[in-house]
Amino acid sequence: MFNLILFGPPGSGKGTQSTNIVKSYNLQHISTGDLLRDEVSRQTPLGVEAQKYMDQGFLVPDEVVIGMISGKIDENPGVRGIIFDGFPRTKAQAEALDKLLEFKNTQIHLVLSLEVPEDELVRRMLGRAATSDRSDDNEEVISKRIKEYHAKTAPVAEYYDAQGKLERIKGDLDIQDTFKLLSREIDKYLLPA
Ligand code: ADP
């Protein structure tokens, strides 16, 4: 198995590039943002709890997210690998993920971090707000999401950097050019399917 984390601040293009990577390399896609929004739209007990945090731009508590993800990792045995998108977002989540993968005799091989200047992030998210039906894409909540990123999520990059697994990728090029940079790193481990 080849397991990849696509890392980066909100608005850095993780969702878009995950779709490209999944198509090229045939990996299983696990996006905690998508999973949480699905729980919210079905108004499950987990979704009702998570929504309180998401609507305010706060991270959902670690135990909720970790519990939700552990079942997903086992959902498709025999996959080539998994791309984690929007997870882990705290050091506690990263440690929990390491344990879950170790239990399956595998590990995270590579963490690709999309680097985008902050003014570009805000510009993109405000642009998306006009057309998305996401309740957290408005100016006030966006600035809280960016604050949460700096306080809790940015340290996750250091966690993987210390393990020699982090590669920083320019995320402010056009979509195809950033995808080429990402592919160049992935190709060192896994060729397109
Ligand atoms: P973005 O990265 O653009 O903010 P996501 O779809 O990844 O969007 O996440 C949307 C919201 O879902 C986050 O602001 C947060 O409240 C919640 N969320 C998603 N993934 C996690 C996670 N791994 N841990 C905690 N909260 C999460």
Which molecules other than protein and nucleic acid are bound?
Answer: adenosine-5'-diphosphate
End-to-end C-alpha gap: 13 Å
Rg over CA atoms: 16 Å
Largest sheet: 5 strands, parallel
CATH class: Alpha Beta
| Order of the strands making up the biggest sheet | 2-3-1-4-5
How many helical stretches?
Answer: 8
Enter the CATH topology name. Answer: Rossmann fold
In total, the number of domains comes to: 1
- At CATH level 2, the architecture is 3-Layer(aba) Sandwich
In what range is the share of β-strand residues? 5-15%
Number of strands: 5
Helix/strand/pairing class, anyone? alpha/beta
The ordered H/E elements are EHEHHHEHEHHEH
Identify the notable features of this structure and list them briefly.
binds adenosine-5'-diphosphate, 193 residues, Rossmann fold, single chain
Provide a descriptive summary of the structure in words:
It is a single chain. The chain has 193 residues and is α/β, with parallel strands linked by helices. It is built from eight helices and five strands, in the order E-H-E-H-H-H-E-H-E-H-H-E-H. The protein has helices at residues 14-25, 32-41, 45-54, 62-73, 91-103, 118-129, 139-161, 175-186, and strands at 2-7, 28-31, 81-85, 110-115, 166-170. The protein has a five-stranded parallel beta sheet, with helices on both faces. The protein is globular and about 40 Å long. The two termini are 13 Å apart. The model has no long low-confidence stretch (mean pLDDT 95). The structure holds adenosine-5'-diphosphate.
